[in-house]
Amino acid sequence: MNQPIFQGCDRRRFIRHMLTLSGISLATSASVFPALVQALGKVPQKLPAEQSIFRIKGRVRVNGELATENSKITQNALIETNGDSEIIFVVGKDAHILRKNSELILSADKQSLETGAQLVKGQLMSVFGERAANEKHTTSTTTATIGIRGTAVYAESELSRSYVCTCYGKVDLMAVNDPKSVERIETVHHDSPRYVYATGKLGQLIEPAPMKNHEDEEIMLIEALLGRKTPFSSLNDYSVPSIDY
User: Fold this and answer.
1) Residue 180 and residue 111: Cα distance in Å, rounded?
2) CATH number given to 50-214
3) Which pLDDT value is given to residue 161?
4) Do 157 and 125 touch, CB atoms closer than 8 A?
5) Rounded to an integer, what distance in angstroms lies between the CA atom of residue 222 and that of residue 230?
6) Sign of CA dihedral 120, 101, 168, 92
7) How much of the chain exceeds pLDDT 70, in percent?
8) Which of 3, 87, 192, 214 is the most exposed place for a label (fewest CB within 10 A)?
9) pTM score, two decimals?
10) How far is CA 191 from its chain centroid?
11) What share of the chain is helix, strand, coil (3-state, %, to 5)?
12) What is the C-alpha to C-alpha distance for residues 231 and 212, in angstroms, rounded to an integer?
């Protein structure tokens, strides 16, 4: 399993504690929970409009330039990580965690709304804000096209197959190489992970897969960066998302 940013500590318990603090100012939480704040460096809370990046680990390039936490990521951007780097960032209504050894190309419409995310390689966790009926978003991998319909999605992009988990919400999933391999997925809690293959029997390039390599706390973290909560109130209390577009 690819270990995200919080490697070296109990990530599940750690992020849950940090999310509990998300409504507390950094100064207050630093004095009350100095070890936790020191480990992460900041409390996950809604980022200011002028800020894109919550955290960078290692060397990350944005449009070919080495990024810092002060770098601005626009809706048209190329983001690249290497073998020891990861990035947590916000673009408009959406938030993402791009894991190590990954390449992501964002695209936008004339109104600078993020309309596409092409995961050329690697691993990506995303949560998407509500859009109007005429505002579409498509996430793509090497083998899959994912029409976003109000959701959180975790994706892995490899040459021969992709992994797509609709963590909650709705997507229209289609194999790039076979329009007959298509599925409308609606989930409450990681109910229908899928593998999407590059080759195989027509109409059957999408297959069930296990839930793997991502956690609820990561979703809760990036939702907090947008000032939002997940559709579930706790890790054992889920409700059907109301977003649909």
Assistant:
1) 33
2) 2.60.120.1440
3) 98
4) no
5) 10
6) negative
7) 76
8) 3
9) 0.81
10) 17
11) 15, 40, 45
12) 20
Distances from the Cα of 138 to the Cαs of 18, 32, 234, in angstroms?
Answer: 31, 42, 29
Q: What gap in Å lies between CA 198 and CA 175, rounded to an integer? A: 7
DSSP 237: B
Q: If 0-12 CB within 10 Å is exposed, 13-18 middle and 19+ buried, where does residue 175 land?
A: buried
Backbone torsions φ then ψ of 129, nearest 5 degrees = -80, 160
Distance between CA atoms of residues 124 and 134, nearest Å: 25
Cα dist from 237 to 28, 69, 189, 211, 234, whole Å: 29, 34, 10, 18, 5
CA pair distance 106, 72, nearest whole angstrom: 13
The residues with which 139 forms a beta bridge, in sequence order, are 117, 146
Q: Which two tokens stand for residue 199?
A: 């080759």
Average pLDDT value for residue range 214-241 = 71
pLDDT tens column, 105-147: 999 876 667 899 999 999 999 999 887 778 889 999 999 999 9
Three-state secondary-structure class, residue 101: coil
Q: What single-letter amino acid sits at 49?
A: A
Angstrom distance (rounded) from CA 35 to CA 243: 37
Amino acid occupying residue 228:
R
Which of 5, 112, 16, 8 lies closest to 58 in space, CA to CA?
A: 5
Sign of the Cα pseudo-torsion (73, 74, 80, 83, in order)? positive
Q: How far apart are CA 126 and CA 155, in angstroms?
A: 9
- Domain borders along the chain are 50-214
| Three-state DSSP state, 67 | coil
